[in-house]
Amino acid sequence: MKTKNILLTSLIIGSFLGCDPDPVETTNNDITDDKKISKGTVQLGFTEGATVSINSLDGHTFMDNITTNSKGEYSVNQFELKKAIADYNPSLKMLLIISDGGTDTDPDDDGVIVEDEKKEVKGQVKSIVPLEKFLDEKVQSVNLITTAITELIGDVSEVSEQKILQIAEALGVEDITGDGKITLDDLIYYQMAEHESKAESYLRTNFLDDIHNNNYENIKIFIREIKMSQSIISPIIKHDNNGLTVKFSDLSSNNYIRYGLKEDSTEVSYTSYSGEEIDIPTDKYLTKINVILSPKTI
Fold first, then answer.
1. For the segment 139-179, what is each residue's pLDDT rounded down to a tens digit?
2. Contact predicate 227/152, CB 8 Å
3. Contact 171/222 with Cβ under 8 angstroms?
4. Cα–Cα dist 109/47, whole Å
């Protein structure tokens, strides 16, 4: 169990306030629109000297070359970000935050910074954040848990909040906000040196070293093993005037799906799904879907 160092926390808070006996607190409401900023931190332990970029899920970069300070903090000008998003996709809902490199200043996460314990971060730390939350005044955390969830979601152009939370619960994310349920706040406001969860313990043991060392093959194996052991396959359904188009997410070579199409009262004919889109005209019905995840059935 991690140690909560109260003295160190007090010193850190003091360093933010500085020496001014009467510090003036400034919020985004007190400044002009072109000066408003969003703040974030990169945390395995606090990750210093990382390069952060703000992206769309489909790979477009809005802002990059943002460097974290000694506490893993970075800031983004909201006016510039919103302008870049409006020029590219005004209806964009989700951002992909990617932190590259830097130094993990507290790898054992005990709240005490020891120079000899620091580790170079050769891999990436990631988070998928709703744009609306990124633009509020709370400090976002790009951390070990958000990285695992982002890797599990994979390369997609869009993702729902429900999908993110489904994966979060499967990993063992816990309610840090005390509202009695798992929400995105339990991910993006998670503080690695302060909070504890089954998800963090599991990922520290099985995932953290591969992020430090950028061991891409081990990361792929780890993600595949999670997909094999958790029920994170879900349908992706599009609807238009011609009917439905269905695909299934998170399939690997060890997964297979049997699905059936039914026309009126005829017998159902089952077909193996192999990754292609299933077109369902308006006069047909998608009946029972059997998702078989070796060695489990879900």
1. 999 999 999 999 999 888 889 898 899 889 889 999 999 99
2. yes
3. no
4. 12
